[in-house]
Amino acid sequence: MMFYRSYQSYCHRLQHDMYFLISTSRLNEQVVDKIVLQLNRVYPQILTNEEAEKFRNPKASLHTRLSDLLKHLQKKGDRHCQEFYRALQINAEQLFNDLPSRKILSPVFFLACFSVAAGLALFWYCCNSVGASSQSATAAGPGLNALELLQAASQHMGCSREWNV
What is the spatial distance between Cα 102 and Cα 61, in angstroms, rounded to a whole number? Predict the structure, then answer.
Protein backbone atom coordinates (compact mmCIF):
# COMPACT_ATOMS: atom_id res chain seq x y z
CA MET A 1 0.00 0.00 0.00
CA MET A 2 1.33 3.39 -0.89
CA PHE A 3 2.15 5.80 1.94
CA TYR A 4 0.23 8.79 0.59
CA ARG A 5 -2.77 6.76 -0.43
CA SER A 6 -3.08 5.03 2.96
CA TYR A 7 -3.79 8.38 4.68
CA GLN A 8 -6.19 9.63 2.03
CA SER A 9 -9.89 8.89 2.57
CA TYR A 10 -11.86 7.16 -0.15
CA CYS A 11 -14.16 10.17 -0.36
CA HIS A 12 -11.18 12.42 -1.00
CA ARG A 13 -9.87 10.01 -3.61
CA LEU A 14 -13.28 9.90 -5.30
CA GLN A 15 -13.39 13.68 -5.36
CA HIS A 16 -9.95 13.65 -6.97
CA ASP A 17 -10.95 10.96 -9.51
CA MET A 18 -14.42 12.31 -10.29
CA TYR A 19 -13.39 14.52 -13.22
CA PHE A 20 -11.35 11.67 -14.71
CA LEU A 21 -14.31 9.28 -14.47
CA ILE A 22 -16.88 11.71 -15.84
CA SER A 23 -14.85 13.60 -18.44
CA THR A 24 -14.46 11.85 -21.83
CA SER A 25 -17.04 9.13 -21.03
CA ARG A 26 -14.57 6.57 -19.76
CA LEU A 27 -17.39 4.56 -18.22
CA ASN A 28 -20.03 3.27 -20.60
CA GLU A 29 -23.66 2.60 -19.75
CA GLN A 30 -23.19 -1.12 -19.18
CA VAL A 31 -20.33 -0.67 -16.72
CA VAL A 32 -22.19 2.01 -14.78
CA ASP A 33 -25.24 -0.28 -14.59
CA LYS A 34 -23.10 -3.16 -13.35
CA ILE A 35 -21.55 -0.96 -10.67
CA VAL A 36 -24.96 0.34 -9.55
CA LEU A 37 -26.37 -3.20 -9.46
CA GLN A 38 -23.40 -4.47 -7.48
CA LEU A 39 -23.72 -1.63 -4.97
CA ASN A 40 -27.44 -2.38 -4.69
CA ARG A 41 -27.49 -6.18 -4.65
CA VAL A 42 -24.22 -7.11 -3.00
CA TYR A 43 -24.18 -4.12 -0.66
CA PRO A 44 -27.85 -3.06 -0.24
CA GLN A 45 -26.85 -0.75 2.60
CA ILE A 46 -24.80 1.25 0.07
CA LEU A 47 -27.60 1.83 -2.47
CA THR A 48 -31.28 1.20 -1.80
CA ASN A 49 -33.59 -0.07 -4.56
CA GLU A 50 -34.96 3.44 -5.12
CA GLU A 51 -31.47 4.94 -5.38
CA ALA A 52 -30.37 2.20 -7.76
CA GLU A 53 -33.38 2.84 -10.00
CA LYS A 54 -32.57 6.55 -10.02
CA PHE A 55 -28.95 5.95 -11.08
CA ARG A 56 -30.00 3.42 -13.75
CA ASN A 57 -32.76 5.57 -15.25
CA PRO A 58 -32.17 5.63 -19.04
CA LYS A 59 -34.12 8.90 -19.37
CA ALA A 60 -31.26 10.80 -17.72
CA SER A 61 -27.93 11.14 -19.50
CA LEU A 62 -25.11 8.84 -18.46
CA HIS A 63 -23.00 11.86 -17.50
CA THR A 64 -25.71 13.15 -15.16
CA ARG A 65 -26.38 9.75 -13.59
CA LEU A 66 -22.69 9.06 -13.02
CA SER A 67 -22.07 12.52 -11.60
CA ASP A 68 -25.08 12.19 -9.28
CA LEU A 69 -23.96 8.71 -8.19
CA LEU A 70 -20.46 9.88 -7.29
CA LYS A 71 -21.77 12.92 -5.39
CA HIS A 72 -24.29 10.72 -3.58
CA LEU A 73 -21.60 8.27 -2.50
CA GLN A 74 -19.37 11.09 -1.26
CA LYS A 75 -22.20 12.44 0.88
CA LYS A 76 -22.84 8.97 2.35
CA GLY A 77 -19.28 8.56 3.60
CA ASP A 78 -15.98 6.76 3.24
CA ARG A 79 -17.30 3.19 3.27
CA HIS A 80 -19.69 3.92 0.40
CA CYS A 81 -16.85 5.40 -1.65
CA GLN A 82 -14.67 2.40 -0.82
CA GLU A 83 -17.34 0.01 -2.09
CA PHE A 84 -17.61 2.06 -5.29
CA TYR A 85 -13.87 1.58 -5.85
CA ARG A 86 -14.25 -2.14 -5.20
CA ALA A 87 -17.11 -2.36 -7.73
CA LEU A 88 -15.11 -0.31 -10.24
CA GLN A 89 -12.11 -2.62 -9.85
CA ILE A 90 -14.28 -5.70 -10.43
CA ASN A 91 -16.17 -4.29 -13.43
CA ALA A 92 -13.55 -2.06 -15.09
CA GLU A 93 -10.13 -3.10 -13.85
CA GLN A 94 -8.12 -1.26 -16.50
CA LEU A 95 -9.93 1.99 -15.78
CA PHE A 96 -9.45 1.40 -12.05
CA ASN A 97 -5.70 1.01 -12.60
CA ASP A 98 -5.60 4.23 -14.65
CA LEU A 99 -7.23 6.40 -11.98
CA PRO A 100 -5.24 9.53 -11.06
CA SER A 101 -5.38 8.64 -7.36
CA ARG A 102 -3.62 5.34 -8.13
CA LYS A 103 -0.78 7.15 -9.89
CA ILE A 104 0.53 8.78 -6.74
CA LEU A 105 4.12 7.74 -6.20
CA SER A 106 5.07 5.38 -3.42
CA PRO A 107 7.83 5.81 -0.83
CA VAL A 108 9.88 3.22 -2.70
CA PHE A 109 10.09 5.64 -5.63
CA PHE A 110 11.27 8.45 -3.35
CA LEU A 111 13.74 6.13 -1.65
CA ALA A 112 15.13 5.10 -5.04
CA CYS A 113 15.47 8.74 -6.10
CA PHE A 114 17.18 9.60 -2.83
CA SER A 115 19.58 6.67 -3.25
CA VAL A 116 20.53 7.80 -6.74
CA ALA A 117 21.04 11.37 -5.49
CA ALA A 118 23.15 10.16 -2.57
CA GLY A 119 25.20 7.96 -4.90
CA LEU A 120 25.83 10.85 -7.27
CA ALA A 121 26.77 13.11 -4.36
CA LEU A 122 29.23 10.49 -3.10
CA PHE A 123 30.66 10.10 -6.59
CA TRP A 124 31.02 13.87 -6.92
CA TYR A 125 32.71 14.01 -3.51
CA CYS A 126 35.11 11.27 -4.57
CA CYS A 127 35.87 13.14 -7.82
CA ASN A 128 36.84 16.25 -5.89
CA SER A 129 38.70 14.59 -3.01
CA VAL A 130 40.87 12.32 -5.21
CA GLY A 131 41.98 15.26 -7.35
CA ALA A 132 42.93 17.26 -4.23
CA SER A 133 45.10 14.53 -2.75
CA SER A 134 48.81 14.50 -3.39
CA GLN A 135 50.48 12.46 -6.09
CA SER A 136 52.21 10.29 -3.49
CA ALA A 137 48.85 9.09 -2.21
CA THR A 138 48.04 7.69 -5.65
CA ALA A 139 50.95 5.27 -5.76
CA ALA A 140 50.62 1.87 -7.35
CA GLY A 141 48.71 -0.88 -5.58
CA PRO A 142 45.07 -1.52 -4.87
CA GLY A 143 44.32 2.22 -5.07
CA LEU A 144 45.35 2.22 -8.70
CA ASN A 145 42.48 -0.07 -9.63
CA ALA A 146 40.04 2.13 -7.74
CA LEU A 147 41.33 5.21 -9.58
CA GLU A 148 40.98 3.48 -12.91
CA LEU A 149 37.43 2.54 -11.98
CA LEU A 150 36.67 6.13 -10.98
CA GLN A 151 38.19 7.40 -14.21
CA ALA A 152 36.09 5.03 -16.30
CA ALA A 153 32.96 5.92 -14.34
CA SER A 154 33.60 9.65 -14.64
CA GLN A 155 34.13 9.37 -18.39
CA HIS A 156 30.91 7.37 -18.68
CA MET A 157 29.01 9.92 -16.57
CA GLY A 158 30.50 12.88 -18.42
CA CYS A 159 32.57 14.20 -15.51
CA SER A 160 35.28 16.47 -16.87
CA ARG A 161 37.70 15.69 -14.04
CA GLU A 162 41.25 14.75 -15.10
CA TRP A 163 42.68 11.71 -13.35
CA ASN A 164 46.36 11.10 -12.69
CA VAL A 165 46.79 7.36 -12.97
Answer: 27
